Amino acid sequence: MAVPFDQHEGEIWYDGAFVPWKDAKVHVLTHALHYASCVFEGERAYGGEIFECEAHTNRLFASAETLGFEIPYSKEVINAAKRETVKRMGLTDAYVRPVAWRGSEMMGVSAQKNTIHVAIASWAWPSYFDPAAREKGIRMMVADWRRPDPLTAPCHAKAAGLYMICTLSKHKAESNGYADAMMLDYRGQVAEATGANIFFQKDGKLHTPTPDCFLDGITRRTVIGLARSRGIEVVERVIMPDELASFEECFLTGTAAEVTPVGEIGPYNFTVGPITRALMDEYAVAVRPASAGLRDVA
Asked: What pLDDT is stored for residue 295 in this prediction?
């Protein structure tokens, strides 16, 4: 049985200092637990270096600003703390999780005087999806829940509350024998997976939904840059579910997922074709420290 995350060994950076992993705790009446006033990042280190470290920190700060609070440390301090966390954990290839949240001084919808806490943890996490399933393309279903209208939720923040429907959708998918679920948006358009962006290939071109109500992922932007550097046209546009029958390849992108081929979404099947495999290989090279010149997240 896997070790529960609150029982791991090591250290976590917590409000400016390293503490033993098991001592990094919050009170049961913490505002973030009740009202989702929490933002976070998911990052990976390769060869001891965090890929797009500054881009993730910039998004963490932007997410906090969207939720109406200010992270009480500079970006430089957070970047240094992330790197030191990976080093102290003795890791070279690792997952990194910075998180910021409102504390427990006030309990209610309004909590403007609450202390803002920040923590950074790191652990080994080789593959988000089962490697065997990933090799032949994971199986997905279509989620019941939809990504919300930007006027109803801060959809461009990486905020904890926005993942509630992702957990519900992924749990249902797994209980039905699938690895993940594809989510539509409030208009019925293809949006993303529960924790990753999605791409489709047709006639040598890549098609991906316009991220107007969900995160424009850092890995998404990296892969778009890699594809364009190969001369592959990338079209960001509205994609409707009935178009899935016309696509040849499909893959997901995300920090945890990296580049993951998709073999099936509901009744639609895809091949793990040459473009998907090429981008898997190029991404694997690009994230390594020596390949910094291949990165393109503009």
From this structure: 40
If you count them, how many residues does the chain have?
A: 298
Cα–Cα nearest to 34, from 108, 136, 139, 123: 108
The count of other CB atoms within 10 Å of the CB of residue 163 is 16
CATH topology of domain 131-294: D-amino Acid Aminotransferase; Chain A, domain 2 (3.20.10)
Amino acid occupying residue 183? M
**Helical (H) or strand (E) element with 49:** strand 49-50
Tokens of 236: 């960001």
Domain ranges of the chain: 5-123, 131-294
The pair of three-digit structure tokens given for residue 118, joined into one six-digit string = 């920040």
**What's residue 223's pLDDT?**
98
87 labelled catalytic: no
Q: Is the pLDDT of residue 44 over 50?
A: yes
What are the pLDDT digits (tens) for 243-261?
999 999 999 999 999 999 9
Q: How far apart are CA 139 and CA 23, in angstroms?
A: 39
- pLDDT > 90: what percent of the chain? 92
Q: Which CATH number does the domain 5-123 belong to among 3.30.450.20, 3.30.470.10, 3.30.565.10, 3.40.1380.20?
A: 3.30.470.10
Q: What are phi and psi of 62, to 5 degrees?
A: -65, -40
Q: Does 133 score more than 80 pLDDT?
A: no
Q: Where are the beta strands (DSSP E) in 57-196?
A: 94-102, 116-123, 138-147, 180-185, 190-193
| Rounded to 5°, angle at Cα 10 from 5 and 11 | 95
Alpha carbon distance 265, 255 (integer Å): 21
Q: Which of 82, 113, 158, 205 is catalytic?
A: 158
